Amino acid sequence: GRMLASEIPGARFVELSGNDHLPMVGKNSDQILDEIAHFLTGKNQPVATDRILATVLFTDIVDSTKQLAQKGDQQWRLLLASHNMMVEREISRFHGRLVKNTGDGILAVFDGPARAIRCAMGICKEAHQMGIELRTGLHIGEIELIGDDVGGIAVHIAARVMGKAGAGEVWISRTLKDLVVGSGFSFQEQGLYTLKGVPDEWRLFAVEQEKN
User: How much is the pTM?
Assistant: First the structure.
């Protein structure tokens, strides 16, 4: 590389860290692409903000297959449509963003952790009045913005937390609990859990009624 740079008029030799020359892989991929962009445009490109701190909420209808068998396809579709409208309304009320439906539940993100918890509690209450029970799970952390979708370990943790909750319950991670101290919530510790695909053990909490 140094020899080539010395023989090409106007060439500039740039040595980067890492051990891979392919810009699509390796830990130095961003550096390689930045240098290519600088060579083509003559200026450094602005850094794209593709990671943000957010509270992630997952919900799931408990025993949905059993209810489908009991109610029949048509009645279940109507109930599911009502559920979806209710969930969207509650997410909007608490200034969250519905990312996507997950079949019998949803994935949403919030920039306020307390509002996310209140939204989860509101959704569970409304669902109960509709004759269905939800389990919900929340976690806060950095997420990746992938178009209209989101990804990252924080999303997986929230999904795993939801999987531990029971019918009508709102479960959260210790990380989220510590961030809403003083927000008027009370919690019941549920113990340490191993979350599939996630390192370490996680202390989880169920949200109780808000203090007056």
Answer: 0.75
